[in-house]
Amino acid sequence: ARFVAAIGLLNSAAMFSAIFLLPLLLQKRYHVSPGLAGLQMVPFLFVTTVGAFTAGRITRRTGLVKPVLAVALCISTTGFGLLALPHAHNGVDQVVAFSALAGLGLGGLMPTTLVAVQSLAGPAEIGAMTGILLLVRAIGGAFGATLAGVALTMTRHHPAAGFEGGFLAGAVLLLAALALALRMAEIRLRTAVSTG
Fold it and tell me: Cα 27–31–36 angle (5° rounding)?
């Protein structure tokens, strides 16, 4: 359960760093209006939902967690890595595409970590374990947003480096989560798990 909680924390940190950085990147580097930047976040948010739905279906069908976590982390790490590369995105469309790739993987982690924690808990502990995971995710979100803000503040004279550093930090967090996922034992889901 510790590994799953840590993966939940790292995933949430990466997600909130992206939510913090992406609109600012679109506005500062590509001079997109705030309203349009918000609209261009829709693909990221939409594919996060698609990733969550798809991962939930696969996990329920196979009863296995570890492969779904590993694949989702590889996808999200790739998206963050592409966003972090200098001059990797030369236009708004590429930023949106790379962020959608990251969102697909991030979304896949949300239901998978939840049902994994619930499967590891005893029947009397499901509520407590679910609450702990949600608390850990909230802490991770705060950490991720703070980390992104620090990356921008430390490089305020070179904004491009701040964005690249912020996305690179997200990729590193996800790589750490992938290492944890590969180390943990396989978790077989119980048929009575609530997917809340």
Answer: 65
For 178, other C-beta atoms within 10 Å of its C-beta total: 20
Locate 93 and state its tokens: 């469309």
pLDDT of 192 above 50:
no
pLDDT digits (tens, 9 = 90+) for 43-74: 999 999 999 999 999 998 988 899 999 999 99
Query: Cα(79)–Cα(106) distance, rounded to whole angstroms?
Result: 10
In this structure, what DSSP letter does residue 188 have?
B
Q: Is 192 exposed, middle or buried (0-12, 13-18, 19+ CB in 10 A)?
A: exposed
* pLDDT tens, position by position, 99-141: 999 999 999 999 999 999 988 888 888 899 999 999 999 999 9
Going by C-alpha positions, the residue among 148, 177, 142 that lies closest to residue 164 is 148
- Any idea which residue has 């949600």 for tokens? 134
HSE-CB at 26 with a 13 A cutoff on CA atoms is 23
Q: Measure the CA–CA gap between 194 and 129, rounded to whole angstroms.
A: 12
How far is CA 96 from its chain centroid? 16
